């Protein structure tokens, strides 16, 4: 299973909204919608890992940091994002980052079940 | 260049959509669902993505992003472009068809093809055809303007033309030029892209109402309940060129979310009138209050002037009666403890207290005046001071009790701190800290700030805490 954190993106939110509309019109069931979202998680994780090849640098001031359940959450202020020559400045940005070394962080329990 | 909303990001998103749709096709078949449902999902998803600002550049830069095909009448010539707008007749096919919801409602969403610059002027007689073959005839000149930057997301549809389905006969379809203010966007529940058409269109409104529609000024406030209520019983508005409204210039579409603009506008107008009258009533109440207070003061002064000639009881009785009468008026008119409703008991408790205090002060002063047997000047001075003190005390009580704003505790720091539209969702390789210097090594991230999307495979950052 892949991380579900990408559901809170424009792409993910629009998919969830679309699924909600279909559920409201009873064209699909909520269980099917969940399956769709799981497929979305896989697809976006794969796409980001394989189809994106660019590097970004950024610098700013750290306002807050939080580490809970192996998830880092930062709030930075006055951040500059730089890629090659472009520069984008943002007053405030929130970074939510899951552990990139272990993709199955969400399913630790499942792992134990497999071992057993 | 940042991989933002130009080709790479848009292509990535479209490829993800394609992958997801293909991967769930079997799921849908296993559920016994038709392909139509899957297509609906795809169209919904794509339309939402296209309409979001994240894909804004895609719409601008991509040539084949037309969602509808303009079919112009035979007598349409390019000379119409001299009017100042650039109208391009795209020859490309439309990508998106428009989903049908149980055959009862239609999401009619148009987005202008790339290459068109705003404002776009669509002359009269233009027929718009969607990919599914639905025809929308523009019967009056329409200017599609783009909302200025900074509009809320719900108001991103300013560049979309919402039109009604054409009836079987080649009658003119309705174009609802919404005079609503673009910043007073529709409620969040309404999709930013689509406008639901009525399942049962009502008869055409009388021309009198129609003519007033284009001339209505932008409405400052729109209640969501009214909009939602206006969606279902939408009348079919027919605007004809021979309307009595003398409007030579084209109608400007600001918000195209609600087709039921006429009824909505009328409701809004009535609401405005009601609020205005309410304000007038409040002002009247304030005036009445002032008058009553002034009358009381005058009566108190007269009573003090008469005090040496009258007994104490009679003066107190006169004062008490007068004051009681005035305070009864006050209690009927003024709600001293603020607008919040269920405080009748408090009112009753407060008013007698204030009344008693006020009476106590005046009576005490009156007694002193009688005992001391001062002249009229002193009596007046005492009465004036007592009056002012009483009025001040009354005002202070009014100010302190109803509001108690000092007791409010607002804790908005923490939620606001983490509530931002600029979000990066990613994975971390390594997070390092040395004293107060932090270093971030991130990967596979999707960034969204300013409503636009960016992606990266690697991100390295530094920050000082």
UniProtKB/TrEMBL annotation, chain A:
<protein>
    <recommendedName>
        <fullName>Transcription initiation factor IIA subunit 2</fullName>
    </recommendedName>
</protein>
<feature type="domain" description="Transcription initiation factor IIA gamma subunit N-terminal">
    <location>
        <begin position="3"/>
        <end position="48"/>
    </location>
</feature>
<keyword id="KW-0804">Transcription</keyword>
<keyword id="KW-0805">Transcription regulation</keyword>
<dbReference type="InterPro" id="IPR015871">
    <property type="entry name" value="TFIIA_gsu_C"/>
</dbReference>
<dbReference type="GO" id="GO:0005672">
    <property type="term" value="C:transcription factor TFIIA complex"/>
</dbReference>
<dbReference type="Pfam" id="PF02268">
    <property type="entry name" value="TFIIA_gamma_N"/>
</dbReference>
<feature type="domain" description="Transcription initiation factor IIA gamma subunit C-terminal">
    <location>
        <begin position="59"/>
        <end position="100"/>
    </location>
</feature>
<comment type="subunit">
    <text>TFIIA is a heterodimer of the large unprocessed subunit 1 and a small subunit gamma. It was originally believed to be a heterotrimer of an alpha, a beta and a gamma subunit. Interacts with NCOA6 general coactivator. TFIIA forms a complex with TBP.</text>
</comment>
<dbReference type="InterPro" id="IPR009088">
    <property type="entry name" value="TFIIA_b-brl"/>
</dbReference>
<dbReference type="InterPro" id="IPR009083">
    <property type="entry name" value="TFIIA_a-hlx"/>
</dbReference>
<dbReference type="GO" id="GO:0006367">
    <property type="term" value="P:transcription initiation at RNA polymerase II promoter"/>
</dbReference>
<dbReference type="Pfam" id="PF02751">
    <property type="entry name" value="TFIIA_gamma_C"/>
</dbReference>
<dbReference type="InterPro" id="IPR003194">
    <property type="entry name" value="TFIIA_gsu"/>
</dbReference>
<comment type="function">
    <text>TFIIA is a component of the transcription machinery of RNA polymerase II and plays an important role in transcriptional activation. TFIIA in a complex with TBP mediates transcriptional activity.</text>
</comment>
<keyword id="KW-0539">Nucleus</keyword>
<dbReference type="InterPro" id="IPR015872">
    <property type="entry name" value="TFIIA_gsu_N"/>
</dbReference>
<comment type="similarity">
    <text>Belongs to the TFIIA subunit 2 family.</text>
</comment>
From TrEMBL, chain B:
<dbReference type="InterPro" id="IPR009088">
    <property type="entry name" value="TFIIA_b-brl"/>
</dbReference>
<dbReference type="Pfam" id="PF03153">
    <property type="entry name" value="TFIIA"/>
</dbReference>
<feature type="region of interest" description="Disordered">
    <location>
        <begin position="372"/>
        <end position="410"/>
    </location>
</feature>
<feature type="compositionally biased region" description="Low complexity">
    <location>
        <begin position="373"/>
        <end position="388"/>
    </location>
</feature>
<protein>
    <recommendedName>
        <fullName>General transcription factor IIA, 1-like</fullName>
    </recommendedName>
</protein>
<dbReference type="InterPro" id="IPR004855">
    <property type="entry name" value="TFIIA_asu/bsu"/>
</dbReference>
<dbReference type="GO" id="GO:0005672">
    <property type="term" value="C:transcription factor TFIIA complex"/>
</dbReference>
<comment type="similarity">
    <text>Belongs to the TFIIA subunit 1 family.</text>
</comment>
<dbReference type="GO" id="GO:0006367">
    <property type="term" value="P:transcription initiation at RNA polymerase II promoter"/>
</dbReference>
<keyword id="KW-0539">Nucleus</keyword>
<feature type="coiled-coil region">
    <location>
        <begin position="286"/>
        <end position="313"/>
    </location>
</feature>
<feature type="region of interest" description="Disordered">
    <location>
        <begin position="147"/>
        <end position="254"/>
    </location>
</feature>
<keyword id="KW-0804">Transcription</keyword>
<feature type="compositionally biased region" description="Acidic residues">
    <location>
        <begin position="389"/>
        <end position="410"/>
    </location>
</feature>
<feature type="compositionally biased region" description="Basic and acidic residues">
    <location>
        <begin position="156"/>
        <end position="167"/>
    </location>
</feature>
<keyword id="KW-0175">Coiled coil</keyword>
<keyword id="KW-0805">Transcription regulation</keyword>
């Amino acid at each position: 299973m892949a991380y579900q954190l990408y559901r809170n993106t424009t792409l993910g939110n629009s998919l969830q909204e679309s699924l909600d509309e279909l559920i409201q019109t009873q064209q699909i069931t909520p269980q099917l919608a969940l399956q769709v979202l799981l497929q979305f998680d896989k697809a976006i994780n794969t796409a980001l890992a394989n189809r994106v090849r660019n590097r970004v640098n950024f610098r700013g001031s750290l306002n807050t940091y939080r580490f809970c359940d192996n998830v880092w959450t930062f709030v930075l202020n006055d951040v500059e994002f730089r890629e090659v020559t472009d520069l984008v400045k943002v007053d405030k940005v929130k970074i939510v980052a899951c552990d990139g070394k272990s993709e199955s962080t969400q399913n630790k329990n499942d792992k134990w079940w497999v071992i057993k | 260049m940042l991989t933002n909303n130009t080709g790479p990001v848009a292509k990535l998103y479209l490829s993800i959509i394609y992958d997801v749709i293909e991967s769930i096709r079997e799921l849908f078949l296993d559920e016994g669902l038709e392909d139509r449902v899957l297509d609906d999902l795809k169209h919904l998803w794509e339309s939402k993505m296209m309409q979001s600002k994240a894909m804004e550049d895609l719409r601008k830069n991509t040539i084949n992003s037309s969602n509808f095909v303009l079919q112009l009448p035979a007598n349409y010539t390019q000379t119409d472009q001299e009017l100042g707008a650039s109208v391009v007749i795209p020859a490309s096919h439309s990508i998106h068809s428009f989903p049908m919801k149980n055959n009862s409602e239609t999401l009619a969403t148009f987005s202008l093809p790339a290459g068109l610059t705003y404002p776009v002027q669509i002359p009269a007689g233009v027929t718009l055809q969607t990919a599914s073959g639905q025809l929308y005839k523009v019967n009056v000149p329409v200017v599609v303007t783009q909302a200025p930057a900074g509009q809320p997301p719900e108001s991103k549809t300013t560049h979309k033309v919402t039109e009604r389905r054409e009836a079987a006969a080649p009658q003119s379809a309705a174009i609802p030029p919404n005079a609503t203010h673009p910043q007073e966007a529709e409620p969040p529940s309404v999709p930013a892209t689509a406008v639901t058409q009525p399942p049962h269109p009502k008869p055409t409104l009388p021309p009198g109402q129609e003519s007033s529609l284009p001339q209505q000024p932008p409405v400052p406030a729109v209640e969501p309940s009214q909009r939602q209520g206006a969606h279902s019983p939408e009348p079919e508005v027919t605007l004809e060129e021979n309307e009595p409204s003398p409007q030579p210039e084209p109608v400007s579409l600001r918000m195209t979310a609600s087709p039921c603009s006429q009824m909505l506008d009328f409701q809004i107008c009535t609401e405005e009138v009601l609020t205005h009258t309410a304000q007038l009533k409040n002002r009247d109440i304030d005036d009445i209050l002032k008058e009553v207070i002034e009358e009381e003061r005058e009566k108190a002064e007269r009573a003090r002037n008469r005090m040496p000639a009258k007994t104490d009881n009679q003066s107190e009785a006169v004062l008490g009666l007068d004051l009681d009468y005035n305070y009864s008026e006050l209690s009927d008119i003024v709600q001293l403890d603020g607008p919040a409703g269920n405080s009748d008991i408090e009112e009753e408790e407060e008013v007698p207290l204030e009344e008693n205090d006020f009476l106590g002060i005046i009576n005490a002063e009156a007694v002193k005046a009688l005992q001391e047997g001062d002249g009229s000047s002193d009596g007046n001075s005492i009465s004036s001071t007592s009056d002012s003190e009483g009025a001040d005390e009354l005002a202070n009580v009014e100010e302190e009790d109803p509001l108690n704003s000092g007791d409010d505790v607002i804790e908005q720091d923490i939620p606001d701190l983490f509530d931002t539209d600029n979000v990066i969702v990613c994975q971390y390789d390594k997070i390092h800290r040395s004293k107060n210097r932090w270093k971030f090594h991130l990967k596979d991230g999707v960034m969204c700030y300013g409503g636009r999307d960016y992606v990266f495979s690697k991100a390295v950052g530094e920050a000082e805490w």
